[in-house]
Each structure stands twice: as structure tokens, then as C-alpha cells.
Write a structure and sequence with these properties.
The protein is α/β, with parallel strands linked by helices. Helices cover about 40% and strands about 20% of the residues. It is elongated, with a radius of gyration of 40 Å.
Length: about 625
């Protein structure tokens, strides 16, 4: 078995038989989170999957949050589960209603549809308070009077165990009384905290009697001034998941060391179906700032113009720059879900937006460094409206009208006075096609006193060689002063001239030959020659001038003459089937020859001539 990079970067495994991939054995692999969920469902641990996105409303979301949103919502959607949007608003000092509104807007813009109403951790404050009282009654929590500095000192280090607080062994009754008085606002901010009683010698520093409640007189955006004590994030978070029935708590790797504390909280409180926490790698991008704290500092210090400054990678900034939800989803699919941290190239994100916009964004022609292009024999004041596809990669977007007139603008890079080899754009004597318009041939140019080209003169071209090379240049035209659309153009006259001259010349050639040979013109042969000339002139891809029409007419007439001679001297004219076959073959190869002569390097035109010749 080998692994192959499939569409959008997903790994696909293909079974091998004899060194070759077998047909219809392609299976898209699953990420490690999906495998865990599959196993949980198979073992009957959960009947239905429930996930959530739990942001803290202390800033705007960035590209890293988009990964979590799409991952959690995608899992719920894939397994027909539920997806909650819940705000972990346990720290009113940093939270604002502005941030709540921006987060809701970003989640909805990404297309993540949450179930039910928006939820807030603050809606569960009463239940969290009762849970803290329960821990005190079980002897699993105590009120501590140590200052923040002393708590850090008593906690120990990563290599040394902590030591017990002198208040750790207070009685349950005293702790209940003190905690009630904390709730009633009898103590100053920071003077007392409620701590979980776990293990001060634990190797995991998060388990060394962490703080679960603190005194803080702050107005909350949702509950107002109802509370003067607030739960800590590590205490509130697992309770919120348990209350909402979240089955799989998907979070980033920095919370891996917090998992033992989360499990301890829900187990001690007694929730029957605690959530399973699964950690995945954060999203890092090269050359950009993704940390919310650092982005907030840039905003607060006025270094950037707000949270939606296009130089940032907040979701609001990306939306302002023109990124689409589909492009961000595509980027997340390319990045994938892993357990190891890594940085992703910012160019990959830009690739995703380009790839997404290609088939659906309307296109416009623009000239950045313009020089004037004058079609010398195009009538002044005349404007012709040409059809241009809104997006050449998506015909369903339709067409738009673009004005074509005598004076246009082209980019300076599309013209050179002395071009190098393999330069297929405009230069003296060369012919190119203007995108969505006509072929033009450069006949002259003008310079200013500094030797800089200021104007290029051209005539309509004939699409002889350049059609096969596919060279198109952008142009831009102003609307005519009279605003009237042209109903005819110079090429209409050329078409009429060519389709008249070629059959006429072919007829004259055949008439002279039959007069000399038979003593009188043969009407059927002259008609044959006229049709041959008409068919031949339609074989080229574009309109030819008078000289070309005369040459094609002469060649077509001579080919019919050759057919007459062939019928008289080689084939049996009395044999109707033979005569018809010879005439048909003559028409086919004659048209091919004329098509090759007229179009030279355009094989598609030769095929067109073959088609017409066969019908003729």
C-alpha cells in the first residue's frame, strides 16, 4: 500500500497488486480525531456527537480560530451531530459586547451553523457556584488568603514540588462561610480565592491546588453587577461542556496539560457523561502575527487601523481584503489536522483565494503603464461594442459589452521597437490580436523628445500566422463622444470584398480555359469554379485582403481546370459514378490545398476547409 496526495491535499491510500494500482479501490483517509470518534461510536460510548466552538470574547477571531470553527462544525455535520456556539465569558475585565458581535458575524460568515441559541458561560454561573459549594462540602476545595505572589511561591517549579498553603486545612464549615461572604462582597478584590484541593506535589503544575474562584468587582457584559466573584476558566470550561452535553471537546495542544484538571472537575462534581477532550495542533502562518494578545497590542498602540486592518489575519481583515469562506475552507483542507505543531506558508493561503476566485470573479481589462494605440484607417468618432466574456474560465457568467474605437490604450510592455527573439507581442511589422477584439498590425510609432514611445499606429490585421501562436494583448478604449454604437465595421467590407472577388476570379479562369478548349464557356464548370472559390475563401480563420482574395480565386479556378482536364484525360466522363467521385475528390483536396495556402500554420483552418470541401 502506498499513499498519494489527493484532491485538496487529502491523503488517499490505494491498494497495490503487482506494483500497479487497482481500479475502484481508492479510499480517502480520516484524520486522527475522526478515527477516535468512529471508535467511540462503535463501542457505544455516545449515541450522538456534540461539538462546540467556545471563544473568549476578548478580541476578534483570527485565521487560527477559523480552523477550530470549521473543524468542530465539520465533525458535527459529518456525524449528524450538534454544534454549539458558546462564549467563555468568565473574565469581564477583558470582554466587550463588540467582540461578541464580531465573533458571531465571523462564525456565520464562515458558514458554520450553530444549533439553538448562542450560549454563554455566564448563563451557568449559578450552577458553577453550586458546584464550588459541592467541592467544599466534599473537602475538595478551600478558601485561601495567600496573595498572588505567595501562591506562585508556594506552587513550586517544574522540577520542585509545591508546598501546602497554611489555609489548606480549614474546616468545611469555615470554608463554606468564607465562600458565602466572598459572594456577598465582604472582601476586597484579590484578598481571598477558592482553590481546589488536589496535590501540591503533582508533576503537573496545573494540579497543584489551582484557583477556581476569585473576588473581582467588575460589571459583566451579560450579567451586569449580579456577581462579584467569578470562576476561573479551567474550572468553568469543563462544567460548561458537561452541562451542554458536549461529547468531544476539541481544543489545541496548549490545553493538553490542562486535561487532567478538566477531568478532575467533572468527575468530582459527578457528571455522568463527561466530555472527551482531544487536542490538535494550532495553525501557524509564516511572516504574520496570529496570537490574539499580540494583535490586540498592535490595535491598542495604534500600529494598525483596527482589528480589520487588511495587514492582519483576523477573519474580519481577511474578509475586508476579499477572501471568501470557500477559500479559507480550502486552505484548512490543505493544512489538515495533526498532533504536531508546524508553520504553513502564507503563499498557500493566497493560492487558495486565487484558486477560488478564478472561476467566479468577473474579469476586467486594465492597463497600468499605457501608451496610445491608433487604428489609422478606423473611422474617427465611431464606436463598436464588442462582446467580451465576463470570465473566460466560466462561460456561465455571461458577456459584457466593451467599446472599440479608433484610439485605444495598450500596456507599454506589450510593444517593443526592437524586440528580442520569441517576442510575440506588438512591434513594427508584427501582427497581434487585441483580446476579445480584432487583429492589428503595427505600421509606425511615435516618440517624445526623450526617446520614449508615446503612440503606436496600426492597421487591421489578417490572422495569417499569429492565430496559431495565440498571442493576445490587453487594451482599453474610451467611449466615443457621440455614444452611438457602430452597426458596421471595416471587417464587414473586407468580408464582402473577399467573398466576391475569389469566386469571380475563379469563374473567369475556368471560363477562359473552357473557351479555349471547347470553343465556348462551360456554364456548369464555371459554376463549379465559382463555388470552389467561395468555399476556399471561407476556409481561412479570418478575413483576407484584396490581394489574398485574387490569389485564392486564381488557385481555386486552376484547381477546377485541373479537375476538368483530369476528367477528360484520365477518368471516363461517360461513367457518371466515376465523374461524380472525381469531382468530389477534386473539391476536397483542392479546398485543403487552398486552406493550407491561405492559413499556412493554422491546422484548425485546414480542417474547416476539409469539412467545407467534403460538403461541396
Amino acid at each position: 500500500m502506498f499513499y498519494n496526495q489527493g484532491k485538496y491535499g487529502k491523503l488517499k491510500h490505494i491498494k497495490i497488486m503487482g506494483g500497479l494500482p487497482m481500479d475502484k479501490e481508492e479510499v480517502v483517509s480520516k484524520n486522527f480525531i475522526e478515527k477516535i470518534i468512529d471508535q467511540d461510536l462503535e463501542e457505544g460510548k455516545y449515541a450522538k456527537i456534540a461539538t462546540r466552538f467556545p471563544p473568549e470574547p476578548n478580541g476578534y477571531l483570527h485565521i487560527g480560530h477559523a480552523k477550530s470553527i470549521l473543524l468542530n462544525y465539520g465533525l458535527a455535520k459529518k456525524y449528524n451531530g450538534t454544534f454549539n456556539l458558546r462564549f467563555d465569558d468568565t473574565n469581564p475585565m477583558k470582554e466587550k459586547t463588540e467582540f461578541v458581535e464580531s465573533i458571531v458575524s465571523d462564525v456565520e460568515w464562515l458558514g458554520a451553523k450553530y444549533d439553538g441559541d448562542i450560549k454563554f458561560a455566564s448563563n451557568y454561573f449559578d450552577q458553577m457556584y453550586e458546584a464550588a459549594v459541592l467541592l467544599i462540602k466534599k473537602g475538595k476545595a478551600y478558601v485561601c488568603d495567600l496573595s498572588p505572589e505567595q501562591i506562585r511561591e508556594y506552587r513550586g517549579t517544574l522540577t520542585e514540588p509545591g508546598k501546602d498553603s497554611p489555609y489548606r486545612n480549614r474546616s468545611i464549615e469555615e470554608n463554606l462561610d468564607l465562600f458565602e461572604r466572598m459572594k456577598n462582597g465582604e472582601f476586597e478584590d484579590g484578598s481571598k480565592v477558592l482553590r481546589a484541593k488536589i496535590d501540591m506535589a503533582s508533576s503537573n503544575i496545573n494540579m497543584r491546588d489551582p484557583i477556581i474562584y476569585r473576588v473581582a468587582r467588575m460589571t459583566h457584559h451579560n450579567t451586569g453587577d449580579k456577581w462579584c466573584i467569578y470562576p476561573m476558566y479551567d474550572f468553568a470550561h469543563p462544567i460548561e461542556d458537561a452541562i451542554e452535553g458536549i461529547t468531544h471537546s476539541i481544543c489545541t495542544l496548549e490545553f493538553e496539560d490542562h486535561r487532567p484538571l478538566y477531568d478532575w472537575v467533572v468527575q468530582e462534581i459527578g457528571y455522568e457523561h463527561p466530555p472527551k477532550q482531544i487536542e490538535f495542533a494550532k495553525l501557524y502562518l509564516t511572516n504574520v502575527i496570529t496570537g490574539k494578545r499580540y494583535i490586540k497590542r498592535l490595535v491598542d498602540e495604534g500600529i494598525v487601523d483596527g482589528w480589520d486592518d487588511p495587514r492582519l489575519v483576523t477573519i474580519a481583515a481577511l474578509r475586508r481584503r476579499g477572501f471568501t469562506p470557500e477559500s479559507i475552507k480550502s486552505f484548512m483542507e490543505l493544512v489538515g489536522v495533526t498532533k504536531s505543531n508546524s508553520s504553513n506558508d502564507y503563499a498557500m493561503l493566497e493560492y487558495c483565494i486565487r484558486n477560488d476566485l478564478k472561476p467566479k470573479a468577473p474579469r476586467v481589462m486594465a492597463v497600468l503603464d499605457p501608451i496610445k494605440l491608433v487604428i489609422d484607417n478606423y473611422p474617427e468618432g465611431q464606436v463598436e461594442y464588442l462582446d467580451a466574456m465576463v470570465n473566460m474560465e466560466n462561460p456561465d457568467l455571461g458577456y459584457e459589452k466593451v467599446p472599440f474605437e479608433r484610439e485605444l490604450w495598450i500596456d507599454r510592455d506589450d510593444f517593443m521597437e526592437e524586440p528580442p527573439k520569441k517576442y510575440f507581442r506588438l512591434f513594427p511589422g508584427n501582427e497581434v490580436r487585441l483580446m476579445n477584439a480584432y487583429f492589428v498590425k503595427c505600421v509606425d510609432f511615435e516618440k517624445d523628445e526623450n526617446g520614449k514611445v508615446t503612440k503606436v499606429h496600426a492597421f487591421p490585421g489578417h490572422n495569417i500566422v499569429i492565430g496559431a501562436l495565440g498571442c493576445f494583448i490587453l487594451w482599453f478604449g474610451w467611449y466615443g463622444f457621440n455614444g452611438a454604437a457602430a452597426t458596421t465595421g471595416p471587417q464587414l467590407a473586407s468580408i464582402f470584398m473577399a467573398t466576391t472577388i475569389a469566386p469571380a476570379i475563379a469563374t473567369v479562369v475556368c471560363m477562359i480555359f473552357t473557351w479555349l478548349r471547347y470553343g465556348k464557356p462551360d456554364v456548369s464548370m464555371c459554376l463549379n469554379a465559382s463555388l470552389a472559390g467561395l468555399v476556399a475563401i471561407t476556409a481561412p480563420c479570418d478575413v483576407v485582403d484584396a490581394t489574398g482574395a485574387i490569389i485564392i480565386g486564381v488557385v481555386a479556378g486552376l484547381l477546377v481546370v485541373f479537375g476538368v482536364w483530369f476528367c477528360d484525360n484520365v477518368a471516363h466522363v461517360d461513367d457518371p459514378v466515376g465523374a461524380v467521385a472525381v469531382h468530389c475528390l477534386n473539391g476536397i483536396w483542392g479546398t485543403i490545398a487552398v486552406g493550407l495556402f491561405a492559413t499556412k500554420t493554422a491546422p484548425e483552418c485546414t480542417l474547416k476547409g476539409l469539412f467545407y470541401g467534403g460538403g461541396f
